[in-house]
Amino acid sequence: MNITPTENEIKYIREELNQFNNERVGEDGHTPLNIVEYDTNGNIIGGILGGTYWGGCM
User: Fold this and answer.
1) From CA 19, how far away is CA 12, in angstroms rounded?
2) Strand, helix or coil for residue 43
3) Domain extent for 29
4) In this structure, are residues 37 and 44 in contact, taking their beta carbons and an 8 Å threshold?
5) Which terminus of the chain, N or C, has less C-beta within 10 A?
6) Span 6-50, pLDDT tens digits
């Protein structure tokens, strides 16, 4: 087991999972929906990371 995978290993796993999922349920049609909020000094104070998949928000 490796708890610190390389970027290439992560990319490989992600691509294999995407292929597996696409073969079973089709393309997800992912559209990112990300929001970042800043304070008056321009520092990040929060955010939301999400997106749409298969026509719905996740």
Assistant:
1) 11
2) coil
3) 7-57
4) yes
5) N
6) 999 999 999 999 899 899 988 888 899 999 999 999 999 999 999
